[in-house]
Amino acid sequence: MTSVDVSADLRELKATLANVEAVLDLPALRREKDELEAAAADPGLWDDAENAQKITSRLSYVQAELNKIAALHERMDDVEIMFELAGAEDDQSAHAEALGELASIRKSVDELEVRTLLSGEYDERSCVVSVRSGAGGADACAFAEQLMRMYLRWAENNGFATEVYDISYAEEAGIRSATFAVNGPYAYGTLSVEQGTHRVVRISKYDNQGRRQTGFAAVEVVPAFEQTDEIDIPDDEIRVDVYRSSGPGGQGVNTTDSAVRLTHLPTGVVVACQNERSQLQNKATAMSILKAKLLQLKRQEEKAKVDELRGSATASWGDQMRSYIQHPYQMVKDLRTGQETSDVQGVYDGNIDPFLEAGIRWRKSGEKAA
Questions:
Q1: Do 184 and 312 share a domain, yes or no?
Q2: For the chain, what is the domain count?
Q3: pLDDT digits (tens, 9 = 90+) for 294-352
Q4: Long-range residue pairs from 264-272, CB within 8 A, at least 24 positions apart, any chain
Q5: pLDDT confidence of residue 306
Q6: Among residues 66, 85, 115, which one ends one of the domains?
Q7: Residue 37 sits in a domain of what CATH number?
Q8: 233 and 155 assigned to the same domain
Q9: 297 C-beta neighbours (distance < 10 Å), count
Q10: Are 126 and 184 in contact (CB under 8 A)?
Q11: Domain C-terminal end among 66, 95, 115
């Protein structure tokens, strides 16, 4: 790469960063930071734990965004100096190091740019993720468990808190379904592109002839319900079932009927929670999840897209959005965006940012086309 190429690259990156800053509205972010810092310093902050958590979480996010942008400006200034020194001394090693830093800066700017595409009504919120095994028997159940682990690892890698509400274990292996929360800014906007049917193809550990099998799992992502949302559910529209919590293989983890399952009779939406010892706590959590799902359903109905909402999670042939091929070759490929990688294990370990970014760009391009 010549010095002219480097200068052009840096100008392009600075222009992109300037556009990102305009969309993020840095002056407004700085004002918000000052207001949140003042609120966080209030001695009575933790009198309302839920509100305190929101304030501190938002403050942490805003501070991180501002620090990230400031750091990018410093890195751009530094990399210019790195190239100048490498050129003056004709140092190929230093030049290669500068190129590596430039590529790293480009990746960071691209990630920030993707964040500006998250402008939906609920994109800033935390989310509730449900993973359900579909066609494919034990292989589908094992795959569903791997997907749950993948999202939990991704959340951990990004500093997001998670809370598992309910897991239904399968008899032979894996899970039939699981529901968990991912708490962090823009968790919903980011993970919502994962909604749909995922397909795995691999040699089955559960087939005594060692044949290649295909399994499916459905992923559903809804924005976390907040108290400011307005949705009323009459008592006569809900069936409440209580039962004992259980772990893998039917191992009892509770000796009382504390787990709660709620069924919304008009829509057939079912949610469950068994992570708390108290039946009342489990019921309150389950009700929050149910409201989040009904709010999402209401939003889709208003936009005449209820068929898309229901059709995207049938977990069978014909509607898969991503394939995880492990035999006869290694490949994870998103069928909507074309994004792919041969590092299947890396994806299972939570390294899914390239797929998320490609999905967000794909969704935004579809919105513009519409």
A1: yes
A2: 2
A3: 888 877 776 554 344 434 455 555 568 999 999 999 999 999 999 999 999 999 999 99
A4: 264/233, 264/237, 264/238, 264/290, 264/294, 265/237, 265/238, 265/239, 266/237, 267/294, 267/297, 269/293, 269/294, 269/297, 271/166, 271/179, 272/165, 272/166, 272/168, 272/179
A5: 36
A6: 115
A7: 1.20.58.410
A8: yes
A9: 18
A10: yes
A11: 115
Residue 232, classified by CB atoms within 10 Å of its CB into exposed (0-12), middle (13-18) or buried (19+), is: exposed
Residues 110 and 142 in one domain: no
Helix-strand-coil split of the chain, %, nearest 5: 50, 20, 30
From residue 325, alpha-carbon distances to 51, 99, 313, 315, 347 in Å are 44, 34, 20, 16, 12
pLDDT of res. 116:
87
**C-alpha span between 8 and 92 (Å, rounded):** 20
What is the per-residue pLDDT for 356? Answer: 96
Q: Quick check: 354 pLDDT over 60?
A: yes
Q: Whole-angstrom Cα distance, residue 79 to residue 87? A: 12
pLDDT in tens, 249-307: 444 455 567 899 999 999 999 999 998 778 888 998 999 899 999 888 877 776 554 34
Mean pLDDT of the chain: 87
Domain match, 137 and 256 both: yes
Do residues 154 and 88 both lie within one domain? no
pLDDT at 28: 93
- Domain around 324: 127-369
List the CATH number of the domain containing 359: 3.30.70.1660
User: For the chain, how many residues are written?
Assistant: 370
Same domain, 149 and 102: no
Joined together, the tokens standing for residue 138 give 């034990």
Same domain, 95 and 64: yes
Is it the case that residue 35 has pLDDT exceeding 60?
yes
For the record, the structure tokens of 254 come out as 């509770």
Q: 337-340, long-range: CB within 8 Å, 24+ apart, which pairs?
A: 337/361, 337/362
Amino acid at position 77, single letter: D
Task: Write the pLDDT tens digit of every residue in 152-178.
Answer: 999 999 888 899 999 999 988 899 999
Phi, psi of 306 (to 5 degrees): -65, -30
Q: Does residue 120 lie within any of the structural domains?
A: no
